[in-house]
Structures are given as C-alpha cells and as structure tokens.
Amino acid sequence: MPSLTRVAAAERAALLTVESYDIELDLTGPAERFRSTSTVRFRAATPGAGTFVEVRPARLLGVRLNGADLDPAALDDNQYPLTGLAAENTLVVDAEMAYSNSGEGLHRFVDPADGETYLYAMSGMDNAQRIFACFDQPDLKAPVTLTVVAPPEWTVAGNGRHGTAPDSGRWVFAPTPPLATYVVTLVAGPYSVRRAEHDGIPLGLYCRRSLADHLDRDAEEILTVTRQCLDRLHRLFGVRYPFDKYDQAFVPEFNMGAMENPGLVTFRDEFLPRSAVTDAERERRANVIAHEMSHMWFGDLVTLRWWDDLWLNESFAEYFGTRVTAEATRFDRAWTTFALHRKAWGYAADQRPSTHPVAPAEVVDAAEALANLDGISYAKGASVLRQLVAWLGDDAFLAGLREYFAAHRFGNATLADLLAALATSSGRDLTGWAQVWLRQPRLNTVRTEVRLRDDGHYAEVALVQSAPPEHPVLRPHRIGVGLYDSDPAGTGLRLRDRIEVDLDPAVDGGRTVLDGLTGQPAARLLLPNDGDLTFAKVRLDAGSVAAVPAALPELADPLARALLWAEALDAVTDGERPVADLVALVVAALPAETEVAVVQDVLARARNLLDRYLDPEVRPAALEQLAGACARLLAVAPPGGSGQLAAARGWISATVDTARLTGWLAGKDVPDGLAVDAELRWAVLRRLAVLGAAGEPEIAAEQAADRSASGAEWAATCRAALPDPAAKEHAWRLLVGETSLSNRLLEATARGFWQPEQAGLTDSYVERYFAEMPAAARQRTPWVADRVAGLGYPRYAVSARTRELAAALLARDDLSPGLRRVVVDEDDDLRRALAARR
Ligand SMILES: [Zn+2]
Question: Residue 580: in which H helix or E strand, if any?
Fold first, then answer.
C-alpha cells in the first residue's frame, strides 16, 4: 500500500474542505468481515478537478459520487480516483472490510478465558481507511456521525455520546466536533462498563468481562487520577475539555500504550493487571492516563497539519502527562522516572544513525511518521519543552499555549503557529532557539571540569559542552549544578547549594566557568544538570565519580540519585567505563535504593549491558553478582511491597538456582509477603525454560491452569525460549511465516527466541534472520513487521560476522523503510557492544 505523501496531502487539502462523515458499520456478519458504508460530504475549491479517497476493503461493493454510480473496479490499491468534482459533493462508499489481528484497523479478539469476542478500532496513523472510506490525512478534519449495528448483547461506544442503549442492536452516536481521521474509534463487544462523572463530564471505563474484577479493584484509583488530571489541565490550559464525554477503554492486544481518541481513549489492557504490580507500574498507568488526556488539547482540539509536527502531539503530551502526574496525583515523583527511564529512551534514539530533529522540516510520508514514534518525538521533545519552560518562564509558556488553543481550536497548526504564539506571550524571538533545539538532531554532552587548590577549595569549576563530530552543534542550556556535602552528623549527603546557570556557547565557545564556585570548599559530589532541566548527557568529574558508590545510599533526593544512576549507565553504554564498574555499583548501592522505579530501571539496563557487553566466559560471574544484589534487596525490602516484587523479578531472571525456582512454584521457601501469583509463576517458568529445567509438559500444565490471554502469551514466550532445536525451529517459523497469529502472540514468541545462554543453539538463525526477514516483513502490516523485526533481531550475536550480514542486507534496495530502520539501529547497538568487548 502506498503511504500518503506530504505533497499529495497538501494538494488535496488545498482542494477539499470536508464537511462531514456519516459512517455506518454492520458488525453482525460472519466472523472475518464487517460491512462499512461511509457517506462523505465535502466541497471542492476548483469544480471539475479530481482527487482520490482512501479505502482498503476486502471487497468494494459500490461507489456513488453525487448520485452517479462509479465502477468499484477503479480502486487502485488503497486509492479510489474521484474525477469531475462539483463545488458541493456527496460520496457514498459501500464495502466489506476485513477485521484485523494486528492491532490496526478494526481488531477482533476472542478471549481464551471465556470465548467472548471483542472489537476495537485503531485508526492511527493511516488505518482509518481499513474501517471506512475517508480522506486519510490529519488536516482534513470533519464532524463524524457513527452508527453501528451489533449483536444485541453487545455494548458499543464511539467518540461521541449515544442515546439510551437500543433493543435492536442499532447504536446511533451524536455527531462529534471536527475530528482527524486518525482518532476516529469505536469499541464493540460484551464489554464490562463502569460509569462516573466529574465536573459535568460523563466518565466511563470499559474492559473485557474476564477482567471485570481487576477493573472493580482499580476503578477508584483510575477515576481519581482521571479527575485530578482533568482539574489540573483545566487550570493550566484555561480551556475546557472540548468533547462531550471521557471514556477510557482497556482493550486486548493493543499495540501502543494507549491512543488519544477524543472521548474514547483506548489503553492496552495490561494496565488492568491481574497480579501484583509495583508502584512504578501504577505510576506508569497514571502517567499514560495523563498523557492521553493532554492529547485532548494537543492533537485532538488542535491537530498537527502534517506528520512533520508529530512532536506537537507527542512531546507536549509527554511533557504535560509527566507534569500533571507529578503535580496533581499521588505519584509526585514522576519527573524522577522521566529522568532515568524515559530520557534514556530519548538519549539512545538521538545517538542512533536513524536520529532526526524533534520537528523535522519534512516528513515525506505517513510511513516515515510511524517510524518517528520514537524516543525523540516523546522523551527528547518533552525534555526540550522543559528546557523551554526553564528559559521562558512558566507564565509566558502557558499564556502562549492558551493563545495557540484559541487561535486553532478544532483546526490544525504547525511549529510556526506555536512559535508565533509563544513569541507574543513572552516577547522573545524563539527562532534561534527553535533552530538548534527543534530543527537539529543529536545531543550535547556536558562535563564538569574541576581544578582544586592545595587547601581543597575550588580553583576553578567549568562546564564544558561538546557535540558529536558529525554534528557539531552546541546549544544554549539553562542548567542546574548541585553541590552535595556529607552531613556533619554523618547521616547522609545533603545539598549545600544548587545554582542555575545559562550555558551560552555564543559567548564562551562551550566552556562556561562557574565563577561563583571559585574559592569555595570542594563538594563531595558535584552534579551537573541537577534538577534535570536540560536534555544532555552529563559526565561527572573524577572525584565525584569516585564518590558515587558511597554517596548513592546516603542521598535523600530520588531525582539526584536517578541522575547519578543515569550517568553511570550511560558511561558504560558508551564504553567509557567497564561493565564491571557498573556491577560493583549495583552491588554497593542498589540494595539501599528505595525508589522502585529506579530499581527496576537499573536492573533492566544493567542486565542488558551485561548480556551484550560481556564475553560469554565472564558473563556468568557478573550475572551471579547481579542475582546476589537482588537477593540482598529481597532480604531487606518490606514484605509485600513494590521493592520486594521488583527484587524478586530481578532475582528470578538472573539466577541459575533452578532448585529454588522450582521450590517457589511449589510454595517452598518463598519470602514472606511475596505472592507467587499468576504473572510471577510464569516469570519463574520462563527462567526454568531458558535454563532447560522445565519443558513442554510444564508449560502446557501451566497454560491449562491459566486460560487467560496473558497465559497464552507467556506460554508462547516460554515455548520459544526452550533450549531445544525443534522448539526453536517451530518458533522461527511462526516469526517468519505465520500470518494467522495475532500481533501480541507474535511479539511474545519473538521475545522468547533469543537468549544469551543459548548462543550455540541459535547460531544458524543469525544468518536466517538476514536471509528471511525481508520477505517476512512484506507479508505483515508495517507496525507488526517492525515489532517482529526488532524483537527478533539477533541481539546477543555480538560479532563482526553479524555486522557484516547487516551491512549486506542494508546494501539491498528492496527493504521496507521500517525494516531498514530496525536493522540500522540494532546494528549500531551491536557496534557499541562489540567495541566494548574489545
Ligand atoms: Zn501520545
């Protein structure tokens, strides 16, 4: 399917004004297909001109333009040509459409728990055309009136309100305000529903019946967060929530975290967990709720004109999602999680060959936009906004946004529109700032340079900014510097002073001397970017690096600790310090870490570095040390708490003590307060499977006892992880050949396939990946193809040979853009791992 280009979209937008969509869907037919009739009313600026409408039917039944029947056979791939337009046009397209199992279009899912069928629509980025005929681009917004015919026992919801539930199974929804096609949605099935209200806005929560108990348990928390965030956003934006209700539906096999459909946000239903989760995971859910709600303004009320400005959606939603979570909910340390977890995603993406500006000047088509849903559009963009707020001041920033909402309400906007509003509100010219922060890719590194006098006082402290040689752009940064001393009482580390400075490379060439510190007694620890105002890698001075292992457990501020952990992880990722140093730091400091988000992140990233950067001969000893650190954390963590659960998961995935693992499954020697519940049982079984201590009989037995969708996914992961040639071959065939498997089961299989412990067994699949993945990718939708290609990449085959195979593949000219990007980036990660091993 050709991806709509920027040029074609601009031409069509210049010609057309869409006045309304009437969409009628009949969901009562046979299992594979549904009937879709869309009536589009639109004006053409140049009567007599032609254009096209997108539709991706299983069978096109009829096309009628201004009363004249057209030939369905004229459909060319996903575009139907429309010629001889009148000034006012009515187009009716009648089609049979296919349900999807890829999470795109109208996804159909049968719950293994009870056999019930659930549907939800996912229209982003350009999948609305899999549901109804439309002009599928973000700047042709129009009111949508949805009618759905469904089995009588089903519940249906759309973007707009509906009247009372009908007896006949015919659901008619109120016309919406103008919507972009990519946010048109519905859910349909025997969904379980809870209703509430806040500040005059009807609230609804939807989930599968088999998850209703989990929703009952969590509904109050979800609704509380929803109410707190609504109130806060109303205050910040000064503009009321612009749609007529706010439903949140937790849906199965959802690809993203959630999708910001106006009036009906869809979330992956893992956010209604059946087993114990950590508080960091509850925070994550709150953050996603706040993120999607922020989109009601950024993206839904004011929509990007074209995907160049994806950041106007995602960077703002990430920024305000985190801010509102921190300011209005009980998860007041959301910026700490952001500093360590989300920003690592942004830093990594910005250092890869595929990096791009936060706001690229030209995104050529929708396919490129999909690839740009990355750590740059989310985390870097949000960090850059945080930096902008530090620079402009919050009042000017918010005043500019209010102007922007007022000027473009229910319309579309661009970077230039936003900058104009902010320039008016702040009285500053943002052109130069936007040029280096939004239009240029890559990031700076800020190092502290310290010279001491003989008496231990500072002779000079400087912040030195650098940029990668291939992209030597220095930037203005407003940055904090924290000076930490040992508490005189010997009970910890306390902040002596935090200064804020402006680094201005135009003035000092990138080396800024902190004059105020000259002559002061040297701090035990000097932390650049304290407070995390800017987006830059940092490196501590040598004295501070040496102080970190002892200082971390004494430091009360979780954000400062997160920044120190981030610095340590990043220095090892860059090959500047050995993995052994990181393992030693984890052993010394992680058992004392009280912030569970930090524990989880450090464990996950340390584990990844250890698996890839260490030679096979030294890896087991390092893994044992990591498992030991988890065991100590497990011993000291309060029973039943998040820290205990995070430590248990870390220990399970790192240990080789199969006897103890097997004992846990039987309830033997389980730490007090730790529930070995459904999810933890599967985590144990996965580790046993990887180690060859459990096989198909144990997996089948566990799945028989757990008929849930999660159970099916875990079973797929465990099967793919077995150290058995037949199991690997079967899993591989699913990854490269199977199209009947859903998106989520494919991902689960890909997750299990490669294990660092099984290098010999999977060696031949390294070559097969590069030989077979291009054809496999072509038979899948872009999203699923890219996910399988990424999760299925031979990430532990750290060798020159793997890199040669990648280079040979990249030399071909028939790769999909998504596969090319996956291979380019994964290969760059292997380059780093290989360099670190040398
Ligand atoms: Zn978003």
Answer: helix 579-589
